[in-house]
């Protein structure tokens, strides 16, 4: 496998799914290196914890070119409730209100980082496919306040990634059930309230320091 610290944006790898379940065994996870597009992030500081996108094949065939990779489904790693009046404030940016939520009123983050915990068999099983300038996911929420999830090789990288695929892509998580949706929505607005209170306290502190 190409040395992790030498990965560059677009480097693409295939990892075969084995010993998981009959439904998924033989298929491949496709891992694409991508720098987190935020000023607060310095990719060179964490060469062994790269940010990536993941996709999954529909069969036991490895994609052979860019078009085939682009046609594969992105694996989602985090969901955020969408509220047009608060989405920009909560994510410390602008124009997030122009993103289009799904039928559950959620926005998703697909980019995540891999924690290459020491040595693990998953690393050995990475098959380098080449460097591809993939089409990025539409309506993805990427901000400096998004919770970026981590998949780790400490136990099983494949299981970590498939867990999120089943949770968000296959909609097996409780947030897609009526009661779970209400709880998820309520938690979002509680977070908004807390965040606003913190911002007000910080503003008050800054004003008091200026008067000194």
Which helices and strands, and how do they pair?
Layout (H helix, E strand, L loop, with lengths): L10 E6 L11 E6 L17 E6 L9 H5 L2 E2 L3 E4 L5 H4 L15 E4 L2 E4 L5 H4 L2 E5 L18 E3 L4 H13 L8 H34 L1
Parallel strand pairs: 7-9
Antiparallel strand pairs: 1-2, 1-8, 2-3, 3-4, 3-7, 5-6
- Topology, number of strands: 9
Q: Cα distance, first to last residue? A: 58 Å
Shape: globular
Q: Describe the biggest sheet?
A: 7 strands, mixed
In short:
With 212 residues, the protein is α+β, with helices and mostly antiparallel strands. It contains five helices and nine strands.
Description:
This protein is of the alpha+beta class. Helices cover 28% and strands 19% of the residues. The longest helix has 34 residues, at 178-211. The chain starts with 10 loop residues before the first strand and ends with a helix. Residues 40-45 have low confidence and may be disordered.
Features:
212 residues, alpha+beta, seven-stranded mixed sheet, two-stranded antiparallel sheet, 9 strands
